[in-house]
Amino acid sequence: MRFLSGLFFSYFLLFPTVWAQQENAQPFAEWLAELRVEAEEKGISADILDQVFAALEPNPRVIELDRKQPEFTQTYQQYLTARLSPIRIQRGQEKMVEYRDAFARVAAEKKVQPRFIAAIWGIETNYGATPGNMSVVQSLATLAYDPRRAGYFRNELLNALRILTEGHIPVADMKGSWAGAMGQPQFMPSSFNDYAQDFDGDGRRDIWLTEIDVFASIAHYLKRYGWRDDMTWGREVLLPANFAELEEGLKQTEEPKSCQRALRSHTRQLSLAEWQDLGVRRLNGDDLPDADFQASLVRPAGAAGSAYLTYDNFRAILRYNCSNFYALGVGHLADRLR
Ligand SMILES: [Ca+2]
Question: Which residues form the domain of 269?
């Protein structure tokens, strides 16, 4: 941490204008007073505003993390190795036993298989072990005051204040990542408002400390994006020897409607029967499943690497986090938690 901070400060000593150009000219206290007026107009409780704004200051560490560019990009294999460690798989298997009843109740109502709920939980926060311990309000206020993406984070901050006003979590316990992703499923406040669930019926949607609310919230999110529990995420496949000749005809004819960043590298969707006719097979050489699913093909490590047929459920995982590596990591972990 010290080493990284040192790097950060020497960077800004060398290039001070980068920081200066992006600074907010308005004093923080004045900015906060204006925000308070807007928050009160939007129905945020004055008592909550007194509590959270009393000693609120921007957190330089948040800006530091926001500005930090990754020093290298992980390859697909490095990503998978890091996310699917033997300990994460074992811990996931143990958690599925420990919370067997809770998973079963959520799966029955939300129609999402427990292994996918557990896989997202495992990849987001190592099954709740690493939900982040930074103040969500302070992180969001810092990023909302910073001009770079002020509008987005101001909206998230107002949503966070609404969650506190509604009493889902005490002010002191609203912890999360430096970017404001909250609790065990790492929901942004706007996602919380849209998807978080009070499954145990105590009146609070508690994604921090109530596991069954966490599971139901993840499941509800997937369900809202079309999840089907008679379908898995997809599978690794063998391609026919002439696949390079087929590729031109498999290109998408229009821009993907959501998550373009990840879906742009997929082929267009064909039925499994069509893929079967083109010569695509399961990894062991067997025929593809006889199911009426649409699937797009993706090769996350390029033409020489693994090939996957991905179903509509894969697209629901991408709505949780728009990254092929992420969705493949969740799919592989879910397979290991079967
Ligand atoms: Ca609850």
Answer: 234-310
Distance from the alpha carbon of residue 196 to the mean position of ligand 1, in angstroms: 10
Task: For residue 207, report the distance from its CA to the centre of ligand 1, in Å.
Answer: 8
What's this model's pTM, rounded to 2 decimal places?
0.91
Q: Ligand 1 centroid to 204 CA: how many Å?
A: 4
- Tell me the CA end-to-end span of the chain in Å, nearest whole number: 38
Mean pLDDT of 11-21: 45
pLDDT digits (tens, 9 = 90+) for 267-321: 999 999 999 999 999 999 999 999 999 999 999 999 999 999 999 999 999 999 9
Handedness of CA 69, 71, 76, 79 (dihedral sign): negative
Neighbours of 240 (CB within 10 A): 12
Q: Is residue 245 part of a domain?
A: yes
Residues 6+ apart with CB under 8 A from 290: 272
**Contact 134/178 with Cβ under 8 angstroms?**
yes
Query: Tokens 């101001």 correspond to what residue?
Result: 154
What's the gap in Å between 334 CA and the centre of ligand 1? 25
For residue 284, tell me if it sits in a domain.
Answer: yes
The answer to whether residue 46 sits within a structural domain is no
Q: Are 185 and 198 in contact (CB under 8 A)?
A: no
Q: Is residue 102 assigned to a domain? A: no
Instruction: Count structural domains, the chain.
Output: 1
